[in-house]
Amino acid sequence: MTPAQLTGQVLAAYASPRDPRLRELLGTLISHLHAFVTETRLTPEEWLTAVRFLTATGQTCDDERQEFILLSDVLGVSSLVDLVNAAEGATESTVLGPFYVPGAPHRAMGEPIGRPQDGVPTLVRGRVTGRDGQPLEGATLDVWQCASNGLYDTQDPEQPRFNLRGVFTTGPDGSYKFRTARPVSYPIPVDGPVGDLLRAAGRSHWRAAHVHAIVSAPGHRSVTTHVFDAGNEYLSSDAVFGVKDSLVRTFRTPGEGDPEDVSYVVDMDFALAAS
Ligand code: BEZ
Ligand code: FE
């Protein structure tokens, strides 16, 4: 038997699912997996190493930690899923990450989401619109980020629950603003199998500094995205391939008409596609 004959046999065995999408996914998955083994002439030892790696990845998961999603992130698969599902003309999406917590408090427009000791005071502001540029009233921004020590509230017993998190709702002009700390770079968790992979590959485990946002509006597709700091050193080596040029913004010092209680101002508009 040749490798091609075996691949043909396996494909035929999985060709009958009634659901056409399942048929397509299984067929394509088998073709690519078999091509990988054939092309690389994978040895039994290498195959066993891969099985052990995936087993350890599963064993590292619990209610709070999802090592498989982290693996998908560092292989660029999470970002690729985002890309192939992107809506043209809408704000680009990027990875959700493991630190999102639903249920953050609703805050008044302009209110700080954190404490003075969380970092350099920064105003984030902009507008939520449709793809046509029309303002969206009643859009919500669910935002979160880490403190200047590189830790999210869920990782840091010194931070109160829901620190550096908040939900804002736009008024008739679609505008929003909130005060926060200028975000910093931070390392992704590397004490598990994903860390072993990054070290073996000689890759950086740092995320480029960012503020997370999930932007939603009635009748529109939500976007899960980031605002990246243009001055950050990890933009081109982000551990999870989350950086998209359209999401990078300059954190500038306040000018005329800007509030005086912050050291930086960043403008970021979001456009949503109709659902
Ligand atoms: C984050 O930005 O919170 C994140 C995303 C992917 C992996 C680790 C962290
Ligand atoms: Fe993050």
Can you tell me about this structure?
This protein has 275 residues and is of the alpha/beta class. It is built from 6 helices and 11 strands. The protein has helices spanning 3-13, 20-40, 44-59, 67-74, 77-84, 193-201; strands at residues 121-130, 140-144, 165-169, 175-181, 186-187, 206-207, 210-216, 223-229, 248-249, 264-267, 270-272. The strands form 3 sheets. The chain has a 5-stranded mixed beta sheet with strand order 3-2-7-8-9, with no helix packed on it. Strands 1, 4, 10 and 11 form a 4-stranded mixed beta sheet that branches. A hairpin with a 6-residue loop joins strand 7 (210-216) and strand 8 (223-229). Helix 1 (3-13) packs antiparallel against helix 2. The protein starts with a helix and ends with a strand. The relative contact order is 0.16. The model has no long low-confidence stretch (mean pLDDT 97). Bound molecules: benzoic acid and fe (iii) ion. The site of benzoic acid has 9 residues, from helix 4.
Brief summary of the model shown:
This protein is α/β, with parallel strands linked by helices.
Overall SS class: alpha/beta
Low-confidence stretches: none
Major sheet: arrangement of strands = 3-2-7-8-9
Number of strands: 11
What's the helical proportion of residues? 25-40%
Topology order in helix (H) and strand (E) letters: HHHHHEEEEEHEEEEEE
Shape: globular
Q: What's the end-to-end separation, in Å?
A: 50 Å
Determine Rg (CA atoms, Å): 22 Å
